[in-house]
Amino acid sequence: MRSLLFVPGDSEKKLAKGLGSGADVLILDLEDSVVAARKEAARSITRDFIAGRPADCPRLFVRVNPLASGMILDDLAAVVGARPDGIVLPKAAGGGDIGRLDHYLAALEARDAVTPGSVAILPIASETAAAMFTFGSYAGCGARLAGLTWGCEDLAADVGAAENRGPDGAYLEPFRLARSLCLFGAASAGVPAIDTVFTDFRDADGLAREAREAERSGFTAKMAIHPAQVAIINRTFTPDAASVAWARKVVAAFAAAPTEGVVGLEGKMLDRPHLRAAERVLARAVASPDR
């Protein structure tokens, strides 16, 4: 997956529009974009949308309310039977939260005759100050873990920051740290690192710059808040033809010298980390729907 588009779970019109966005994943939101008075309606609309999805539908995840909200069990009970592909857990506080959510999902999968373990979990892992100390705990927390992502707006509110970006648009230092820890935590857990949203959906150039920076750093996907952002994200996180061609050459060079730790290729000396990087590029290329 490269692009994950948030869509309010209480809007049939926006959900239908999301299907044509080109996003690899739609995140049907029951949390921040749905006011308290609309939560029950959103659960019903979201459940029906998942149950009635077309055959060529992108993957459907549901962002539920946080574990501490008192609403998550109602969210899960409403949607698991419709067989969503995954649950996005906001304000996650480490691997222990994944274990707790896993227990809830296992019970509901059994109740609703859903394939055991089929509903994945994607935690938003940086939305509180306390969560910043838990990134290492996601390693080994279970097979449901589909990736690791981070959030900036809630974190800024939690620490009392007036802003999370400087005048140049770059993240301020505390939030750069959160982004880096997400990347390292995902790598440690062996799952994709997914960059957070770019909130100014009218600034296409700013989104492109931020997505390129994330991709170069090791992120393999980015979340979106508007359909107009999806094409830019997909283009950025799909390996281009030149990258794929180079990766194939690297893999072929090592295959031709299986006992060597270092090989020469077009005037460059490459070692095993270069091989692993090339293999990841090819894996991403194969997984990209546009290729």
Mean pLDDT: 94
Rough shape? globular
Query: What is the CATH topology assignment of the largest domain?
Result: TIM Barrel
CATH class call of the largest domain: Alpha Beta
Q: Which quaternary structure do these chains form?
A: single chain
Query: In which order are the strands of the major sheet placed?
Result: 5-4-3-2-1-8-7-6
Question: What would you note in describing this structure?
Answer:
The strands form 2 sheets. The protein has an 8-stranded parallel β-sheet with strand order 5-4-3-2-1-8-7-6. With 291 residues, it is an alpha/beta fold. The protein has 2 domains: 3-237, TIM Barrel, CATH 3.20.20.60; 241-287, no CATH class. The mean pLDDT is 94. It is globular. It has helices spanning 12-19, 39-51, 72-79, 95-111, 153-159, 173-189, 204-217, 230-237, 241-256, 272-287, and strands at residues 3-8, 25-29, 59-63, 86-89, 120-123, 148-149, 193-195, 221-224, 262-265, 268-271.
Would you kindly provide a brief summary of this structure?
This protein has helices at 12-19, 39-51, 72-79, 95-111, 153-159, 173-189, 204-217, 230-237, 241-256, 272-287, and strands at residues 3-8, 25-29, 59-63, 86-89, 120-123, 148-149, 193-195, 221-224, 262-265, 268-271. By secondary structure, the chain is of the alpha/beta class. It folds into 2 domains: 3-237, Phosphoenolpyruvate-binding domains (TIM Barrel), CATH 3.20.20; 241-287, no CATH class.
